[in-house]
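2024-03-11 09:14:02 DEBUG pipeline.ingest accepted 1 chain
2024-03-11 09:14:02 DEBUG pipeline.ingest length=181
2024-03-11 09:14:03 DEBUG pipeline.predict start
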Amino acid sequence: MSGVSEAAFESYITDSLTGGGGYQAVKVGNVGVEPRDFDPVSGIDTAELFAFIGATQGEEWEKVRKTHGSPEAAQQAFLDRLLKELAARGTVDVLRRGVVYAGVEKAEIALMYGRPASGLNPALAARFMANRLTVTRQLPYRPGSAETLDLGLFVNGIPVATAELKNPLTGQTVEHAKAQY
């Protein structure tokens, strides 16, 4: 790791996650023009969420889409349902069990595929490999604010962990991280 800055520490961590930790992409949450992938209102990386669903569950997603007039309306309605499920059941349960969406037809949308117990079933292995793991640097968490968290870890667009990094070599301590967090 070159340098002792917080940005260098972020780079080191994200390079490690993408280099050998199974993460496919590093995003930066506080740059670029609208629309951004991460929605600080919902806390979801909607680009990753709907890319995962579209790539793995086309038939189930079509059931959701048929209930709404446009793809955008279907995505917003599903996002609203997902947020309610996350609030009621928690992230781990929603990732493990998915979301049932009752529209014209009932759709069962998986939000993550677990690691298969063995490599004997190639279909299960392929589903597991379809998971989209991403890390976002400088993740905005308050709409209309420049405030960010240093790192956010996502599984298929759903946040599973955040981190506020500090470096004792620059005089920062865990107490600084707690205060900022």
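2024-03-11 09:14:41 DEBUG pipeline.report The first strand starts at residue 25 and ends at 28.
2024-03-11 09:14:41 DEBUG pipeline.predict end
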